[in-house]
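dumping the sequnces here before i forget
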Amino acid sequence: MFRILIADDEPLIRVDLKELLEEIGHQVVAETGDGKEALALLNTVRPDLVILDIKMPGMSGIEVARRIAHEYPVIILTAFSERSLIEQAKDAGVMAYITKPFRDGTLTPAIELAVSNYLEKAALSEKVSQLKEQLETRKVIDKAKGLLMDKQGLSEARAYRHIQTVSMNKNRSMKEVAEAIILMLE
Amino acid sequence: MGTYFEAGIGRSFRGQGIDMGRRAASQALSQLEKYRPSLAIVFACPELDLDAIQKGILETIGDCPLIGTSTAGEIANGLITRGVVVTVIASPHLKVSVGMGTGVSKNFENAVNEALAQAKASKYFNPTHPLHQMLHISTSKRPRVSPVLAIMFSAGATKSRFCLTHDIHTMLRKGSANRIPIFGGSSGDYFRFEATYQMANQHLSNDSVVLAFIESDILFGLGMAHGFSPTTKRALITKASGHIVYELDNRPAADVCSELLGVPRGQLGNDAIWFSRYPFGTTDLYGNSILQVPEQVLDDGSIKFGPIMKTDQVITLMNGTKDDMRDAGLSAYNKAILQGGLKKPALALMFSCALRMRLMGKDRRSEINSVLRKTKVPVAGFYTFGEQGITDDCLPIYANQSVSTLVFSDELNPVATMIHKGKDIYFTFASQLNRKISQIKAITRINQILEDQTVVESLLAMLSKELPMVLQWADGAFYFPSKTADTYILMGASDRRKFPEKIIPHETGSRYTCIGLDIHCKHFGLMVLKQKDNELVPDDEDMLFAETVAKLVAGSLHKIDLDRGLEAKMQHFEIFNQLGKELSHSIATTVQFQKLVEHIRCILKFSFVSLWLVDPTHQILVKEAVDADPDVIFTGDKRENDERITKWQLTHCQLLSVADTEDKSNPVNLLHPFPFQFISLPVFYKGALRGILNVYSFIKSNSFFEHVRLYDDENVGFLESLAAHISVLIGNRFIQKDTTLFKEINHRVKNNLQNIASLLRMQIRRLDRVSPEQALSDSISRIMSIAVVHENLSHGEIGMVNVGQLIASISQFSVTGNSEEPIITLDISGVPIMIPSKEATSLALVVNELIQNALRHGILPQGRGKLSITISQTNGFISVIVHNDGPGISSDFDIEKRSNLGLTIVRTLVQNELKGSFTLVNSEGTVATVTFPFPETYVHA
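..and the predicted 3d for all of it:
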């Protein structure tokens, strides 16, 4: 069960969509016919999934997707099927693109895939940034270690232990300690 | 008037000496036309005041050399006595120098040498001088070979002085090896034998020898005659010394003479007339008889002769009639002509012996008059006391009682002729060359102007200023043809006062010379020349040169024309380039049309340009873009005329070009004044008039090129193709609109299909509450009401729907579509309102549900009823009221109840789509009211 926000400027379609989603076990936490309003609603309802029409007053669905796709899985649901729009949606980071008129069976797998793909992508991104951070820390510590060895004539093991000790005593991360040492000795 | 030689003879008889001199000299000078006098020869009666006369002559003739002599009678086209005769000869081909040697009686040799030295002629009279081998080579700058001639006057015999002329002559003759002719006479004094005088320049002497030494390229001839014939009476000179003959035939000379003459011895000495009448003669080596006239019988019985006499010479008594003597003058003249080979004798100088005049008595004038009569040549000279000339064999000779003649001819000797011709040719060539040089300079100057100037008007103005300098003989102007065929308009003139503003070539006659500015079959105009007031008359070459100048100008105009054409082509290219850029933009906006119009005006330099487009819905013209020159304010009459032209074009649809708006024959009724020429072009797209392009150009007076520019075939052609391109641009705009519409419709269809799908799905979810029949018929009516919107889409306004029509259609099928047909009174009223199709679709669905409800709950239960639908518009809101006169809704009816699909649709659409409100109340049945905001932009009354 996902908490879903829908934005479509056709009220009847919205009604149908809402009923359909609820039928298949989801909860529509917010609905709107305006792009800007959809942006505003996101901050308050924090849904699991966002379904957007393209042609809307206020702001186009593509534009909304571009702003939120890094935070939410987004599905575009539109009557437009131009290649250029699909490209734009892809660039914005949209997880699925469904054209109207749609069959009710289409929605379920799209939603499942969109959410799981998004989560996987998000996890990967997280992992990448963690690794990046670790790599950065290693680099800094290595540099600080090198400086300690050069300037204070410590062995590698002693230099590392020195950084470790300071980190524990001062309750600072090893990276911060290493940066301070570089600042001091360089 | 002579060609090479001129002469003048002046004379005077009375008055003060100085005046006589002036008069005679100025009379002589007045007969010269071309040349300055080369030598003045004076013959004067010795009784006059010679000193004063000489002064008078000198101050009249200036620095001209002068020689003169006293006479025994003067000759000036006839014999005159006791007067002054001044003869001037004048020619650039004569070189004269004059000298006088005085003291002849003391030492004639010194006197001769002095005279020669003064005349700078000594070298000619030195027998060893090489010049004798070659006549004369002048030492002046211009080398020439000229025959030389000496004119000599020497002191004549007086009572106290012996005449030494023969001695002088012999000295000169021998000195020159007989090569230089000496023409001379001994001065006379009317037989008084007191004093004779000679003049040389300002000098006057009574005991001198005067020489004029002449280097002459002018042909001259000399001749001598006396008219006497030898008789059989002769004697041998047996004793003689100098001029004195002592014995003839070994007897006293006087005795023998007396016998030969038949005159008593006693009478001989008293009257020398006997010797004149019967002179002696000798015969020279060639058989010519020369008179030897005794002058005096001396007391010792010897006889003094004029010439020097030699022993062992035979002297023969001579005899001559008056007729013979008269004819001798003519004979001497003819000999001179023959000797010189003369063809144009111009002056004869006759030195005749005073004795002859005496012998002729009353017939004394006939000798000269016969020459005058026969020859018509002017004759001057004098009666002498002894003459010198040449014999028939061209030897210099001293003679007595003869007539010696020198004739100057108006001809050059062959060598001088050659030189002169050469000189003529040189000067002709030189002047031709100078002329060509000045023409080349002129052409260069014209070319400079032609190169510098690129504007026709200033070019012609500058050129015409230059023309008088270039052509010298004429003022010049340039004319260009006006619109009417035969009139030409002044474009530039060296002096505007001399040329009319307009000219008709074939009517100008000879006052102007008109030369066409033609090149390559193109006629630009005329170069018109007017002869200046000065006397320069153009010759063939001048005309040829003027034509050359005209050709140059025409060439230059042609070039400017071509450049202009090229420039126009470049402009056209630039416009097409801009046009291409505009065309490449997918959307043809008003801004782009405005830009295009600006390009057309700026590049083609029109005064203003307007573009009108046809509004496709209303078939009217709307001004799309206009651009005007900053100097031309596009308002008032200009705007009004532009509109009038456009209106005319709307009905005529054809190219209209008007060169002169003042010309009433133009089809458009214009406001005046309107000093513009214009072209109005219809712009067609796919056979239909889509727009009108008007271009205007201000008419500048006299501006030929500007004037024709607009009507240039190429320009018109270009404008036409421009119109074609604009039509493409306009067409693009329509295609643009069509494409947008197509996309819009496609999107809407898909949206509507989605709507239908959604409606059906919602209906499916509620199938448990209604019968399948009702579910289907409700669904059908919903689909139909969406379809009705498409039916009612306005053809004019894209995507607009008339609310009244929409509702009428819906109620139509709603009422008739029901299976049980109730009796219904349908009443639809309201104002016509147009709303966009999206809103119309929602409204259609809403109204459909309301009608369905009204029918189902209000009318069908009764089987009959009244249904009224009212559309109203107030304060920015549209209200649609659906009323039925049925039983009304039950009190427990909850409008918010979710399960009723119809009401769900109504509520959803009214609130979310129309942003309006919906009420349902009982009032004489049921009243359903839908009210929604209505932006003014939808109004289309």
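The mean pLDDT of chain A is 89.
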